[in-house]
Structures are given as structure tokens and as C-alpha cells.
């Protein structure tokens, strides 16, 4: 028999692999469905790719790849056998077969036991070889099978990939001197203390100065003030401001000239008021361990009425159903060889799992009666747990790929962004959420105005605490709480602020101060105010209540409020009106570019003869680079020295015009025919050539992103492509600001109240939106229970067929009293005009 099995497997031996370090073995979930070893048909694991497939999908993988050998895994769940004393008799066959396979969370270990079964299956004849079968199988097959059976879960946190150069602990970390100068860093509003830049900012860990980094460092701009500060003070360590999380931060050592580790980073940050450890103090289940951070019991009881919720809401929308579930077979048939890494496949899988009902079948009536009579409770189905989808969309994201709890609104926008990226050239279901916001900015001194439009997907409403209708109760509660703290007594029963929804809308429409506003009318900084209105109304409106804020110690805090959010909402009065009669527009001028102090004078030369540090250019030319390329490098890096210019040369040396003489847009004759030339600089206000836009969009990049890249690189295709990769997360707002001026017909008429949907042709002139009336009906909301976004639990309510349904992890049931006043994110659908 051993010889027969060996001969049988000989033709397939080249396709059987042993999992290597880094290989993920998907032995708990199908790549196309939510079938698992506990499903009726079990799970088939390919012995070459280690992908898992349910019984309905394994044939598709065999036909597409020709892989014939699969391991079939099956888990049999049984009721426990009790002994004479009523105790469970532990029994488990093949105990090592599914080592590290996740158990169904609904299993009660005292009530159920399970038996695991594994066998090799050879397609297409479905020849089965039971496992373990060590003596009869070839050694390679035995080793491969044992490795698959004992492989850890594909979703367990993997060890970080090794780097060519491991980051070392800084020699300054232990003995770092910190000045006792009283500096406290606020949780927001940072800017460079020398040039007022607001990106690529670094906090010096000795004296607490916040300064900008080097130009092009980490893909961001800067004037190098952090490095200048080190040269003046010799304070060696700095931390990048936007990388500070409970898990650590990016630290750079100027003296060691490399990124370093700081084991004492939490102590060093706390010196400046940043309580890094308290940013996330919680247990493994996501709940705070501090008593004063414990969520209110009443809130948990009310919201739960005794956390995939977001995906359930998305697939309640016909656009998502049509895009992914309606095209299910086509998406599956044309999926790549590794469907676990394909966004469309995983979205189709998720939508089908939620809408098909295959994973939410209630027991038959006869089974329920039998269980009640015997006082037995069978384990519930696992339902839909989108771990493969979560792993895919979180990959590479510093926050969502971590084990920390994430903010639902941030995750929603991240999912919408993923949908946008993966819908190039096809129907985009996120069009249903997209709308245009009109921003009216007014210079308080000259009274002139500027109107801009930007894309948005979610409206954020403030919760004005001062508008609470129960202020007297709140004041009395505050006094009682302070008295209890002083006398070391138990705190009183909390009182929740009750805020009218109309007050939230009013606060949203109030003018906001514009920080660092530069008035083009005054050619100087001035006071400015901004008001926002809807230029278009989306088909589906996402509304977020701003319940979270940061304390001075950077710890996120939740504002405990109840808001009477209505079932029906009319926002028609918030539609934008555009430039009004009698208003004067601000001149279309840009503020002066702020450069480092030592280069500012050199940047003021005339456009006809730009000032260039010829000594730096010649120093680079001596290395063998073309002289003209060196002069361009020095000019485009702001005369900041040969080091920065050298980095520019390395980044641009493959460009076809690398060695061409420096040509500035202002030096070109902007004749009437220049816009027809794809090589010339377009006149100010014109969009890039359609030919260049078409080339980039054919590569899968969004049209608005392509236009922005071409404008930023003087319509140079090669440089535009580099720009897109350097700015993958670029917001569309800047593009829309440009397009508002250059393409006046790019946006829908703000005064139009048409109920018709915008034509797809609109994308040729701007973002595609589905404008219509501003009347909506509530159909879903997501609630948060806990003290901050870093802890707690999310619960979703969705209105289906006129009844509210609560989604609380794997528990789904009718909701008798949906707590609409305690929601965090609300979803409305537009009402028809009839």
C-alpha cells in the first residue's frame, strides 16, 4: 500500500511545498466564502499556495491553477459525554491536527467537545488519503502535511520583517538631558516655530522646540530648521510629531545621522506633557483598566439593550450590492491567483456572506422545540467574521494594522478610500457618499471673499455642550462630584448632557476662524472666517457627532452627550448660494514661499536670471553629473546645499530632460498656441493636456489625482508618475480648488434643486457626485460604548423592512428601543422628490 501511495503522489510531488517562514496558511477560512473546517463541507487547503477553499470553490481553484493536491480539514462538534458524576469526559481525536485553529467563540467548553479530521484529496478524481499516514507517504509529503497542520493562524500578528539594517538604540537615549523650561506640547495645532510649516514637524526631546524637517525627508517638504537647530544647540534627539502612538514613535538622532530607538521615549515625551502610556490603557478585550475610565454601565445597557457593523451598513446600500454582489461570479472568475489579496474579491465575498443568509440560518422549529424540552442550547453559527478582509485593507496602515481599537469614522473613510482606489475604470459605489462642500472665506479687514469647493464624504457636527437643555442638572452633578472627590466618597450617579440636534446644526453653520490666514487683498496675514455649506447633496449622507476630543495630556476623551437625532432630516436651507451680489472676491494671488533664512535672499532674484549657488553646482558637476542638471538640482532645492541637490539628482536622473537647461514657467512665452503643446508650460489657469491625463488614468490612477500630479510637475509625465507614488494619500481638496477656478462648469449649479443624478460625463470636468434634494431619512447608526476611541465597543443598528435590527458582533436581533440619541455615526438615505 505504501508503494501504491508513493507512486500515486509521484506526478504531484513538484507541486507540493513545505511552508516557509513568512508563508501564511489559511486553514480557518475560505478565500471566496466564510466556510471553515466547521462548515458542512469542511475546508480544502492547497498544498502549494496554502490558500483555503470551501467545497463550492475548490474546483474553481483547481481549474484555474492546475493544483491537484489539497488537504481537507473537517471539525466535528459534538455534545459532551458526561460520566457518572456528571463531569465532562475530555475526548479529542487528532489533538495536534488543528493546533492553533481558532475555536468558535460561541462554544461553551463545558458543553461541547470536538474531533478533528484531516486527509489529502487529489483532484480531479477526489482520491482521499487519511492523515496522519506517516509510514505510507513519501517523506516530503509527510513533512509538508505536518507543517500545514501545525502552522499558526494566518491572522496572528507576524513578527516584523527583517530589515537590511536593524534600527539600533541611540547612545543618547539613557543619558538624554531635558531642560526644565516649562514647555508643554498641545495635542494639535503644531507648526514650525521658525517658518510656520504644518507638516513634517519634529519635536526636539531636549528643549521641546517644534521645527520642520529636511526637504523631501520622509516624502514631505520642509526647510531644515530642525537640523539647523541641532547645529546651533547640539541637542541630538528629535521625534516626528505625527508618529506618536501608544506603541512608540519615530526618533531621529542628528548626531548619529540615522533613525534610532529610544527605550525611554514615554518618559521623554511626558516631560513635555505628552502622556504616551495613558493614550491607551486597556485590557485585551478593549476595556479600560482604570476605574475612572470605566464606561458608564447605563450606556452599555442602553446601547446593547441587555461590535463588521460598518460593512453591514455599506451592504445595505444598493450601489455596493450591485457592484460587488451583483457581479459576484465575474469577480470570482477573474480574481488573481491569490484572491486573499484582491480587494474586489474580498468585498464580493463579504457582501455575499452578509446578504445570502448562508451564515445566519436559524434552527428549524422542531429543533428549537426539542432543545427547549431537553433544556439544551446548541452552539450558534459563527456568522460572518471578515478577518481576511480586515487584514487586506489594514495592511501597511500604521493604525488599522495594529491590535489597538480604531475609530469607526476613520476606518469608514479608509474603506471608502480603498473603494475609490479599486474602482478606476468601473462603477464606483462610493459615489453615493460623495458631495461637494462650498467654503466661503472672508477677510475680516478688507471684507472681500473667496469661494472654494472641496470633496467630502462625511459631515462632522459639533456637540455644543453650552446648548444642553439640562444645564442645571449638569451643574448640580459637577458640584456633587467635586464634593465627593474632596471627601473621598463614591461619585454620584452621572448625568448626561442632552443637546438638541438643531443646536448641532447651528454650531456647524457658524463661522470659524481661519488660522494663519493670508489675505491676498492686503498682501499680509489677517483675520479670516470660514463658513461651509453643501454645494451638492449626496444620495447617502454620513453624519458624525464629534464626541471625542483630546485633553492637554494627549489622552482622547469622550463627551458624554445625548442628542435627539431625528428620523427625517431636511438640510435644504444649508445649500450653498455662491458669490452674492455686492460681494468682492479676493485677488487670485498666492502667498510668498517661505524658505530657510539663509536662502531667502537668493530666492528673490528675477525670473529671467534665477539665483543659483554656482559653487554647489560645480561641486556636484565634479562628481560627473551634467552641469545643467546640477544647476537645476541646486535651484529646485532652494540653494540649500550640495547634499539636498544630490538627493534631487538621484531622484530625477532618469528623466529625459535631466540634462536640459533650466527653464522656468515664467520665462516661457505664453502665446495662444502654447496650451496645445504637451511639452510647454500651460497658461496659468488651464488644465493639463487631455493626452497626458488619459495616459495616467489608463494606468488606474484617479483623474483628479492625475491632474494634480501633472500640474505639480509642469505636465512632465515621468515626474508626474513619481509625484503620484510620493503622494498616494493626497486629498482631492486642492485639486478641486484649482478646478473651481480653471473649470467653472466643473461643479453643479449650487442653486439647482434638480432631483436628477449627475451624469457620469461629469467626471470629465470634476468629481462625480449625485446631487439632489436635501431631504433624508435615517436608516442606520453606529454607537460607541466606552470612554474614548482607544477602548470600548461599537454596536450598529440598521432599519430593515421598517424594523430596527441591532448588530452586536455575532448577535443579530430585533431592536425594541434603538438608542438613536446615543449614536456616533448616522447614515441617511435621500428621500424622493415625490
From TrEMBL:
Question: Which residues belong to any copy of the UBA domain?
Answer: 611-652, 687-727
Q: Where is this region: Disordered?
A: 741-769
User: Which keywords accompany this UniProt record?
Assistant: Autophagy, Hydrolase, Metal-binding, Protease, Repeat, Thiol protease, Ubl conjugation pathway, Zinc, Zinc-finger
Which Gene Ontology molecular function entries are recorded, alphabetically?
cysteine-type deubiquitinase activity; zinc ion binding
Among the Pfam families in the record, one is: zf-UBP_var
Reaction equations catalysed: Thiol-dependent hydrolysis of ester, thioester, amide, peptide and isopeptide bonds formed by the C-terminal Gly of ubiquitin (a 76-residue protein attached to proteins as an intracellular targeting signal)
Q: What is its EC number?
A: 3.4.19.12
Q: Which residues form the UBP-type domain?
A: 168-276
Which residues of the sequence carry a binding annotation for Zn(2+)? 192, 195, 212, 225
Give the top-level enzyme category: hydrolase
Question: Does this UniProt record's set of keywords contain Zinc?
Answer: yes
- Where are the compositionally biased (Polar residues) regions? 745-759
The residue ranges flagged as biased composition, category Basic and acidic residues, are 760-769
Residues of the USP domain:
295-831
* GO BP field: autophagy; protein deubiquitination; proteolysis
Q: What family classification does the UniProt entry report for this protein?
A: Belongs to the peptidase C19 family.
Protein name as annotated: Ubiquitin carboxyl-terminal hydrolase
